[in-house]
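Chapter review: from sequence to fold.
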Amino acid sequence: MLQDGKTLADAAMLAGMDEKTARKYRDSGTVPSESRRPHTWRTRPDPFEDVWPEIEALLTESPALQAKTLFEHFQRLYPGRFADGQLRTLQRRIKRWRALQGPPREVFFPQIHPPGELGASDFTSMNSLMVTLAGAPFPHLFYHFVLTCSNWETGSIAFSESFEALSEGLQNALQALGGVPKAHRTDQLTAAVQNDLGGRDGFTRRYAALLAHYGLKGRPTQPRSPHENGDAEQSHRRFKEAVEQELLLRGSRDFSSRAEYERFLATLLERRNAGRRELFDQERRCLSPLPARRLESARTLSCRVTKWSTIYVSRNTYSVPSRLVGEKVEVRLGSESLAVWYGGECVEPSIPRTRGEKRFVINYRHVIDWLVRKPGAFENYRWREELYPTTRFRMAYDALAATERGAKQYLRILELAARENESAVDEALRCLFDAEEEISFEAVEARVRNGAAPEGPRVVEVAPVSLTSYDGLLAEVYV
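The token string follows.
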């Protein structure tokens, strides 16, 4: 404005500053931002000035020491010298020391992801979302597959990080993708990377065979380096955040069935992939075609049935029909269940696969025939807790345990459930408990044989509570 010919007073007024300030900037020939001096001086004494050489020596020797740990250490070393409110001062000074004189920090290098080059996958726990099925907790994992270029993602529910779950999840992902990228990256999954099994390139034999079937090149991360699989790790976090938000919008974490929950996840994945369509279409053109058939995920094992009518599979115990005791059976172990074959015939098509190790799955139908003949073995049976199909069966045993020959009565009830119908026996027990009748095998059998219509559920009425009684109590207290 001065250059336009305005007077100093007019220019200062239009610029919103005092005339003296305008004259100072005009005479100095600098703009305000150039006139400021950096604030390098302290406004108050540094309380740690005297002890800073000691602090610096400790930090040099052990850079991982935290400011709070050092602060508490010097509070103990010099009682009464440092107040709690001075912690923030030490934190700022240590932060400045780390930036100027501390050790170099880890640097992460952004990568270029060519289309169709790499797919990354991993398992993540979904338990923090507290999903329930028909009111019952549903602990599970999620196998998550991501294309690193377009971030297209898919996945499926899993219950362990076994090879069977990895194989099924990866093949499902490739089928949904409609093609095969050049490489597949995982972290140090024992189902895939385990040098002592003699696999190719440090992979297990089965995982190496899976890669070869699809023409994939395996790329495991380095040990204790989860950031190397950052695409999958970051996708885990964002996917679970999206699931959490959808559950909040839904207003309920309970699903009527697993199928409904799977549809919920599939819909969410479809919506998340919608915004990646353009990049995904480019990437899909770079994928290799799928092979003509899938690879069998189930593992085939040979097991001898013990005298306890059990087999030991993958560090867990499962019961089988007692007529197979002493025989060698073929077990086909899948990701969620196992099938038992003998002589070319399937004798147990689907036994739920338990999670973890040193667990057991005992089906009372497999052993009840001989347990009825040996009722004395029931009391101290190692897997007795597995012989209560429902809560009412346990209640029935507790009611019969105090009576003479109670164990035998209970085992006959259990045999009736195995031969007739478990639900019918459970309903008969409910009716007997509701009617407060004596529990016995004869009573249960009579109700099952008669097939009488079950009584309706008991109606419990709670009288309304009058709050005036609480006012009376409070009045007595304050009197």
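Two observations follow directly from the output. The longest helix spans residues 230-250. Confidence is low (pLDDT under 50) at residues 196-200.
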